[in-house]
Amino acid sequence: MARFIDELKRTHRCNDLRASDEGNEVVLFGWVANYRDHGGCVFIDLRDRDGITQLVFDPNLSGFGDTPKDSYQRAQALRSEWVIGIRGKVVSRGNNKNPKLATGDIEVHVIELNVFNKSDTPPFEIADSIDTGEEKRLEYRYLDLRRAPLQKTLRVRHKINQTVRNYFDSQGFLELETPFMGKYTPGGARNFLVPSRMHAGKFYALAESPQLYKQLYMVAGFDRYFQIVKCFRDEALRLDRQPEFTQIDVEMSFVNQDDIFKTMEGLIFKVWKDVLGIDLHEKYPSGRFPQMPFSESMGLYGNDKPDLRFTMPHTDITKVVVQHGGGGIPMFQPIAEKFKSGQYREDLPAEIVKALRIPAEHASKLSRAELDKLEDFVKGMGAKGLARAKIDETGQWAQSPLAKNITPEARDAINAAVGLTAGDLVFFQFGKEAMVQTVMANLRVHLAKKLGLIPESGHGGKFEFLWVINPPLFEFDEEANTWVAAHHAFTRPHDSDVDLLDKDPGKVLCYRYDLVLNGFEIGGGSIRLHDPDIQAKVFNALGISNEEAREKFGFLLDALRFGAPPHGGIAVGMDRLAMLLSGAQSLRDVIPFPKTQKGTDQMTNAPNKVEGGQLRELHIRVVEPQT
């Protein structure tokens, strides 16, 4: 082995050699990806992180003494995933070229072989496409990472990191660190807690974001900060969530909302160019992404992260239903009565009625059986059912139990409001505003995938960006019967809405914004509150007393009193960005060592129990949950 490490240095990687290298002597290192003994010659596909080169062990290779013969005999013992080094000669493959490989024009005839290490039989094949379940692949993640698809996604991640750092450096930003362990404050995301051995009964919290510290950097006068940082949230997991995740964190002083948009648009354009080779100026000539108010996004798409790769907007027909007293439809009448009696506010409705139009060209592709299955789909999200109707040539509703009850006037008004024409299909959902929005948003995307308007996963070659702006500062928590911050308590309200903080908190809009791509929120941020007086009004609207505010955020409130500049920022999810750019199906495919959906590490069996002595040092006693 010493000869190959000390004397024979690697000359090329396994994706480098081309026809122009014919006749050269080379040294390659890598793993045995494939072994074929053709009775007289042994063929090996040698793999490293960059690609594959075909090796030929020919005992009759002349001009090198007995070394090729010895290498051939030793090559007969090689097996998959053995780690080897070879010295050999580049030879043209002539008419036997392999167009599937970048190195397919050549092969390397081996002179000298060294086995660095043998391998047990892997628990699954190291190949691009395998049927092995994710649980097994996560258990042997270091083997899974040898596969080309995962190698590709991590290269994408590396390239994003490079581009981010270079871009922000060119824009005058400083890359500064913030603490992982900080003060625990109740509310918001659930924190991972770290017990303090030196301070019995006290805990640090792992940072769910660098939010407060990056604001303190602005108070300290650093003006432009960025960081690629790990964050931690002990929350229920799903396809696009991990308990430990990475974000591109940014904060700027003396800026407004549009300044931040321009900065981040510059970053996104650069990332797309460097990573994918795509010039987004072809789609966005001005270099700017479109913007949509939060209220419009909710009205048209039912959420604040719409997928704009296809149309199919919703229509809120609540006012139409109310104007027609429920239109003769029994299930609509209670809602109409509550609005007419003043129990519900038109500007902040507790219940709504929404319609989703499927144009005739798409409606014709859905069978009756498929339509019936949609009922189960929405019930899985808490809906009671899914009303529907098919529009005939005269504008009448067919294939619907609603047809026998709805008044002609209400039907015609709904047809006009939704834009229904012959052959169209329309779905209706009514009830609590939050539930209706969620159901209709998910139904829209579900139908788009079923109809082939967007792929099941990946971007499909389309990138639709959108800034969602001007959301409410507060949302009402019905269980607690109080207003809570929709994002966090340090977001600046619109200047014109400051007076509403005391009078009508639900109508206060703020300078918060989300950057959306293909139905995913890839970034979000806000202009911060730097005025202590307005900050006090926000706390008052949230029912947070001065004492509670000082207990939770005293250090920040003190800092704001020492000449805090106007500032704002944003955080972009690195994992989600890598997932969307690489076309991966889940975040776990772009994180080297991810957790499962249960928050466990299959490879190391974390989390695990800690021995009693360690717990006693930390002043902790474990109380097992009762079954």
Could you describe the 3D structure shown?
With 627 residues, this protein is an alpha+beta fold. Among the domains are: 1-117, OB fold (Dihydrolipoamide Acetyltransferase, E2P), CATH 2.40.50.140; 310-451, GAD-like domain (Gyrase A, domain 2, 2-Layer Sandwich), CATH 3.30.1360. Helices cover 30% and strands 22% of the residues. It has 19 helices and 23 strands. The strands form five sheets. It has an eight-stranded mixed sheet, with helices on both faces. Strands 1-2-3-5-4 form a five-stranded mixed β-barrel. β1 (25-37) and β2 (42-47) form a beta hairpin. It is globular and about 100 Å long. 34% of the residues are buried. Residues 154-592 form the Aminoacyl-transfer RNA synthetases class-II family profile domain. Its EC number is 6.1.1.23. This is Aspartate--tRNA(Asp/Asn) ligase.
Task: Describe the secondary-structure layout.
Blueprint: H1 2-7, E1 25-37, E2 42-47, E3 52-57, H2 67-75, E4 83-92, E5 106-117, H3 134-139, H4 141-144, H5 148-170, E6 174-175, E7 181-182, E8 193-195, E9 203-206, H6 211-219, E10 224-232, E11 244-253, H7 257-276, E12 291-293, H8 294-301, E13 314-316, H9 318-323, H10 333-340, E14 351-358, H11 360-363, H12 368-379, E15 387-391, E16 397-398, H13 408-418, E17 425-432, H14 433-450, E18 465-469, E19 474-477, E20 482-485, H15 500-503, E21 512-517, E22 520-527, H16 532-541, H17 546-560, E23 567-573, H18 574-582, H19 612-617
Helix pairs in contact: 5-7, 5-18, 16-17
